[in-house]
Amino acid sequence: MTLRDSWGDMTALTKAASATAVAGTAAGGGIYFGTDLLKSKKVDISSLMKEVDPQKRFITATSTGDDSWKAAYKSYRESGKDVWGLGVKTASPETLIDATTEFLAKCKSNGKVKVSGKDDPLYKQVLAYCTRDTTVRDLIEEGKTGRKLLDSSDTGNDKESGWEDAWTAYRTKNHVEGGTSQNTWEVEGWDNKKTGNTLPTDYKTKCAEKAKQPAYRLEDENYKNVLAWCTK
């Protein structure tokens, strides 16, 4: 056997031993390595939020006068910490003012920061100061039902816009011929309207109000009602 052959055999043995060692480590410490890999994976805060805190949504409105931003800005000021160094003053409980462009910009930039999990301090700050409740509207718009919320400000033909069909769905569910009517949403003029196609004056408003209510589970009763009675 030549020296080259001997060296080749030793190299092969070394590789085999290394492979065996790695396999043994993987078998004995696979969970350890897997956990490390999982911890090293980072996700931007706004995306992570949808997974671990589905009851909240990152505020995407661009107006500083948006109600959600005003409430979020109030929470930031009430904390009295000014953790982002924005130079804001502590808010009194009754004060509700427009947010600042600096505050919106900070929320936006922080929402893009990648973190390893919900225990990250910045994640907790963004959750506390840059979010609003998830609503029925969110579930419908983000869902896969293929349904679309009807426009409550639409003053056109109710039959063409889809409102007449929505009202029919409500009437059918709530009115039992010869039985007891429910009128779940207590719409105006129910006794006179329950058998016709003409919408009560407040029906569109009811839909708009119900769509704004907090909900983050598809089992939510209000979500199911709005989906059935206010969409097309």
Automatic annotation (TrEMBL):
This is Uncharacterized protein.
